[in-house]
């Protein structure tokens, strides 16, 4: 794995000195109608500071993916506030939300979402082209070098391993210099070694480039790569750990998986 070397690192600043890259205040999301309403988020208030790597964890159905989707402008909350920086998402039109996602947010998913007929280089720059933006050659060169993709740029996704494909997806997310990257189970389709490489890379991007990453995961080991873990249960934030280790994360998950465990905490 090639070590990332980026300028302008900010990760060593204390959290209170860093402004929020994304935040929610009293965020509520209710699906359905009538007696069968499902409250996915129940007045969630949380901030994700710039230059930090945060993992969101919780049992299945806890609301972690819904929180990420609302913060990223992929879903609309029922009530409350979701912001990217100082920008209130509910005030944006669909066109403005699309522009926001293209220009200020990067996405990494469990499925790599690479186009099989395009080369690695073309996959990396595709979102910029769709947005009508020219890539910054110097920046792309830094990203490609850091991710160890320099000798793969002319390959197609089918010629790459799963770990290499996810690195391409990371490069695509970074290509536009986003303010924040949302990663949804980014190692879910990878073997243990490839997953560890991708997680180490994400940590390097935070420490050495000052990138902000918010990652949804169910994997306690993956969460240990983050600076902070936020736990959700029944649509509410019930705990958080800074500088987590696997034992701490596992203990929290066990507690919240027990009936009444989250509410009793």
Name the features:
265 residues; alpha/beta; Rossmann fold; 6-stranded mixed β-sheet; 4-stranded antiparallel β-sheet; globular; disordered C terminus
Explain what you see.
With 265 residues, the protein is α/β, with parallel strands linked by helices. It has a single domain (20-257), classed as P-loop containing nucleotide triphosphate hydrolases (Rossmann fold), CATH 3.40.50. Helix content is 33%, strand content 24%. The protein is built from eight helices and ten strands. The chain has helices at 64-71, 94-104, 120-130, 137-146, 162-174, 192-209, 220-223, 246-257; strands at residues 20-31, 38-49, 53-57, 79-84, 87-88, 105-109, 180-184, 213-216, 228-233, 236-242. The strands form two sheets. It has a six-stranded mixed sheet with strand order 6-7-8-3-9-10, with helices on both faces. Strands 2-1-4-5 form a four-stranded antiparallel sheet, with helices on one face. Helix 3 packs parallel to helix 5 and helix 5 (162-174) runs parallel beside helix 6. The longest helix has 18 residues, at 192-209. It is globular. Mean pLDDT is 86; it is low at 1-16 and 260-265.
Largest sheet entry: 6 strands, mixed
Derived from helix and strand composition plus strand pairing, the structural class reads: alpha/beta
Strand order of the largest sheet: 6-7-8-3-9-10
Shape: globular
Percent helix, as a range, is: 25-40%
Number of domains: 1
The CATH topology is given as Rossmann fold
Average pLDDT value?
A: 86
Order of helices and strands: EEEHEEHEHHHEHEHEEH
What's the number of helices?
Answer: 8
Q: Which homologous superfamily in CATH is the superfamily?
A: P-loop containing nucleotide triphosphate hydrolases
State the end-to-end CA separation: 40 Å
Strand content: 15-25%
């Amino acid at each position: 794995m090639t070590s990332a070397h980026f300028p302008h690192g900010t990760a060593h600043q204390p959290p209170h000195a860093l402004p929020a890259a994304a935040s929610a205040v009293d965020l509520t999301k209710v699906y359905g109608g009538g007696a069968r309403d499902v409250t996915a988020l129940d007045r969630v208030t949380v901030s994700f500071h710039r230059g930090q790597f945060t993992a969101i964890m919780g049992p299945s159905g806890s609301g972690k993916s819904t929180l990420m989707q609302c913060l990223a402008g992929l879903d609309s909350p029922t009530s409350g506030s979701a912001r990217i920086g100082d920008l209130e998402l509910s005030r944006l039109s669909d066109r403005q939300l699309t522009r926001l996602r293209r220009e200020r947010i990067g996405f990494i998913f469990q499925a790599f979402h690479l186009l099989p007929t395009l080369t690695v280089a073309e996959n990396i720059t595709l979102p910029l082209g769709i947005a009508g933006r020219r890539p910054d050659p110097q920046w792309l060169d830094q990203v490609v070098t850091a991710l160890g993709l320099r000798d793969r740029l002319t390959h197609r996704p089918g010629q790459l391993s799963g770990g290499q494909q996810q690195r391409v997806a990371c490069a695509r997310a970074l290509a536009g210099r986003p303010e924040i990257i949302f990663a949804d189970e980014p190692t879910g389709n990878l073997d243990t070694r490839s997953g560890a490489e991708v997680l180490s890379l994400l940590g390097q991007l935070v420490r050495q480039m000052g990138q902000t990453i918010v990652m949804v995961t169910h994997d306690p080991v993956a969460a240990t790569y983050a600076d902070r873990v936020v736990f959700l249960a029944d649509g509410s934030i019930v705990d958080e750990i800074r500088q987590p280790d696997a034992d701490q994360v596992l203990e929290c998950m066990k507690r919240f998986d027990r009936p009444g465990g989250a509410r009793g905490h």
